[in-house]
Amino acid sequence: MPNTEEYNVNFFKPLSDHAKTNKKLISTLAIIWFFAVFGFQALLILFNEPTPEKAYTSFTAIWPSVVENQESSIQDKQILSRSVLSVLGKNIAVKDDHKNILKETLTWSVMTMLHDSLRDTFRSEPNKETFVAAASLIGLNNEGFDKIMVDLLPFSIVKASSDELNDDIKNALPDIMELYLVHNQNALTDFNFLGFPFHYWYTAQFLLILFVVLCLIYAVVIDRTNKKFNFVEES
Amino acid sequence: MSRYIKSLLSFLFLLLATNTLFAQSATQLEGEFKLGPAIILIILLITFVMVGIFNRAKDTSDYWAAGRKISPVGAGMAIASNWMSAASFLGMAAVMYGSGYHGLSYVVGWTGGYVLLLILMAGQIRRYGKYTAADFIGDRYYSKGLRGFGAGLAIFISFSYCVGQFAGIGLMFKWILGIDYTWAVLIGASVVLTYTLISGMLGVTKNMQIQYVIIIISFVIPLFILCYKFGYFAFFPQMGYGAVVSDVVNGIAPGKGITAMGHDFAILPSPEFAMPWDPATGQTAFQWIAICFSLMIGTAGLPHVIQRFYVVPRAHDARWSVVWGLFFICILYWSAPVYSAFGKILSASPEVGKLAKDAIVVYTAQLGDLFPLIIGFLAAGAVSAAFSTVSGLLVAGASAFSHDLYFKVINPDATEQKQMLMARLGTILMAAGVAVIALLNLGLIAQLVAVAFSLAGCTIFPLFLLGIWWSGSNRTGAWAGLFAGGGVSLIALIYFIVGKYGGGLPGQEFVSYYLNAWYFAWLGAPLAIIVNIVASKLSKNKTPVEIQKFLAEKVHNYKLTEK
Questions:
Q1: Range of the domain at B53
Q2: What is the ipTM of this complex?
Q3: Number of cross-chain residue pairs from A and B with Cβ atoms under 8 Å apart
Q4: Which of B123, B335, B485, B537 is deepest in the core (most CB within 10 A)?
């Protein structure tokens, strides 16, 4: 009966020189593969810092005064309106229930910039006149990002339900703004490489190149190893 | 093969030259009959069937393993085409469009798995010299029961993976021909079934090579035009789109161009598109890593992927076919994020409305105002991607049924003719079953496919890994590992289904998060491996010497040991 030990295949205990070379090659490539993929993501997790967009910083600066005094200054309402539009402009990223809260806030914010006697246009179904008035009240012009915000108004102004911002909205809005305007960023995301944010390039491009190179190296080296050890692979 | 490709390309260029004749429906986002794209699609469908007829399978070796005579580059193209499914062509850009950086876990997971597959399995699987995944399992673990179980798993995995593809076929047929989704699925299923039935793996592999060319050309051409049109580095769009991603992050003020719907090519700052695990996407770092890992090991456990190593003559060819295959795959995977980045900008205006994420690739081309025929070709490319994968899956599922269940377990004395009959019957049953489930239209394509990945990762991957690299892994260990991996899979799927229908089991939220149906293999696969090792060590039932000898000498070259 043959000695079974002679045929004991175990990756970690190779019995032939060919198997030892193979083990070394596979281990090296697997380690590179593992750390390149998961090590980099671990670095991102380690370095990530919650980083607010400018719109969020502006929002947090004026929000307390708006909550305490709903008749706060026009300038505060303009900042609030722009911040809310910054989130609504993210379009598909925003959940529908969040969009409704944002739209109500925007409408309230714009309407209360007017004197009570002039608010009727916002209390009925909004029309072109309403949108023009809203753009003017927020101080939007037709250039740069302002133009995008002007284009957003017909989809963002709704029929005003009250002159007061209700408690539900007051409670929900800060969290919604934080959700959409604060992002995980760090030196690896802020550094630009070949036009990409570096982390994006690394994951979407470099890792794929690395995978092809690792495969190429393995195929070439194992062919040479087989030749060296006279291992003829039968068909 | 080149004859087919040349005539196909000539006709397509002729169609492009007469583009103005068909210049219609450019900005129609919903399904209406589109003449130019319809002609392209019909030509492709006829081509696939003709290639099937010209490459009829003459015996079971042709039907299951293409007669083992495919070259490494040809096999690489077939691997890539087999791999690049509707999920790659449509679903990947859809996930990135909706969830930003999170979607890259699919890109990395679906490519990184090939490194594992190559260094740990490809050559060894070919040297072992079987026809199917279940064939290997049954032989290596000297168990008819495991062979049957493996065949059942292969059928189930191929089945669930296939469903996602039919959903993609239906989506594109609906868009091109304007026909009802039900009819789209039925027509698509009939065509792919016809050529698979006639030609088996032989014609399927030849078709895959043609389909690869169609997939890549149709996918990449629109990117050159989009980059050129909107002022990005068009010479190499896969690099040039870096600026598009940065522009999405920082915002683009109007002035760079106009979209098909008359909107500015502009967007407010949207860092959530590119920043890692943005809270707005609702996805976490754990999910990214778990999905990526699950897809990687799932890749190395999918029966229709493993089966591709049996169509080449030698182990050397199996290895090089992976290198070529991965390179060919990466060409598409480098390109897919470009669609999501452009799609994000082009659909930024609320006037565009909510788009079906699964079709964002085609919508992006439409909103970018590309030639209608190029968009049609793109949609036809999506159909090719789905067809190539479906045909590979049908052969994998059918061979598990006819070769592993019928021939090896039920009727070992079956004649060649009888085996062929059963192979074809299996193909028909698979296609019919999948089409019925596809008609239920269950959710995002990429996610449907991910279920198959986790399941393969939890069950088949550990059996192959240990079966190849440790002769101590025996039948008892294999069963124990299979139950452990299968158990985790079952728990994950039960919680998923209960959650889907609004129910709640103990720890529903916890399990739904940590053992989500899309990435439960992060736990299931390592557990199955550990259980397999422990049970094998504890068991008195040792691997038979002849199997150890075969493994050592034929698979690992131990006969040349200098001791």
A1: 2-19+33-232+269-335+354-452
A2: 0.91
A3: 256
A4: B485
